[in-house]
Amino acid sequence: MRSRACICAVWLAAGTQAVLAEAPSTAEPPGSIAGQTAKKSEPARRGVKPRHSGLDRSPEPAGQPAAASAAVVPETPGASGNQPAGLRAGTQPLAGGPPATAAEAVATFWEPLNSRPRGFQASDGWTYYPMVTGASYFDDNVFATPSNKRSDWAYIVRPELAITRSGQNYGIEAHGFVEDRQYAKLKSEDQVNAAASLGGTVMVDPNTQFQGRAQYMRAHEERGVGETAQSSATFDKPVSFDQFDAAVALNHRQDRWWNSLGAAATTMHFSNPTIGGMPQAQSFRNGDIESFPMRLGYVVAPFTSLFVEGALNRREFEVSEFDSFGYRIVGGVLAEPGQGQRIRGQAFVGYMSQDYRGPTFQDVSTWTFGASMALLVADGLTMTLAGSREAKETALTCLGVTVLGCGSSLIETWGAARLDYLLLPNFVVGGGVTYLVDEVVGNPREDRSLRPLFSARYFATPWLTFGFDYRNVNYDSSGLGILGYNRNIYLFSAHAKL
Question: What pTM was estimated for this model as a whole?
Fold first, then answer.
């Protein structure tokens, strides 16, 4: 039996480590890596297959693109994969590779390997995919405190719309949502989140491809994670933020060799939370981040390439002591969707260096890695693997009212693994774990969080899915006087494709 798509939603575009939380999965049963429902195409020029050549795709919306992953519930397992909440901001460059046909390529970097919404095609050439999610969840430690826990139920309504259009040499997609989250008792946690994204691909010529993406998100940080891990429990309300991301890439192929030149930028602005009405400055987190990846690859087998990459980055903030400049040099493998493929995604390992401006920061020179892979282990069983290691900055070592003269370099490392199994033709169960380590350079402090998860999906009809998600968070720190906490979240959801 050929299943409709794969439940395991891994975001395969490199560098999607924004401060995002995870949303309920809208996935359909696993059984094949997305894109395998293909028919063979004619060989490309000079006998080299173009990227994703021959995929017989109908237009498919993104489901939950990066900008739209601003969480139906704090880091509930689902459509944005196993990426943990609380990651410090970074750029989201497009994953360079050999050129594809435009319509196939736009689906590749937007589609997160999960559902195929129903959609309808209008006379204007656009295909529209309206969707709505309703959910409720119970959180036994809303403020992420080590003691005196406060629990509550929350209720969510999230309408969203994706639209796509494609032609012989181009593909375009837009996606947006608005989410209203209301708590039963703790009204300080009520919030409205929203996001919008636009992406496109153009085949300049048979061997050259241009890709672009832009996205905006208005969201709120989860309490007890990241830069405000030790203080967010005392904030009057969760920290809101605005984030804008943009990325472009130019991919070119010549025989089995290919190269990719890219640029990506992220701009973020955090509101100043209050404690008893007194503002707590977050200006040291406001700023711009740019990266410039350059890849050279070689196709070693159909849909499989080896590559080397060099990437420059610059991180600039309103508080200039936190500024830094760095680079990385890595080698890796790129597995693309295609006929008979059982692996999709990329993985790389190499070296990174980051030089900081502030006198209290120490330069970083160490190894790095990145991974975002989906594997068809067996019929009905899929696995996702993801993770990264990056140099960032932190004010966790600042104990006073100012962040001047006390910031530190930080190495942020995380890894995640997840399995999803088709137990019945319309019932999927899944489980996994995510582990995050924030290591303060030159300081004995190290923050760690372990996040096991479980999920179940019942596909009642082709347009209606019911879900259950459980997530546990165990946070601890070696910092002096920093207490850990435990948190459990139980989510019940319904997702309709209109």
Answer: 0.82
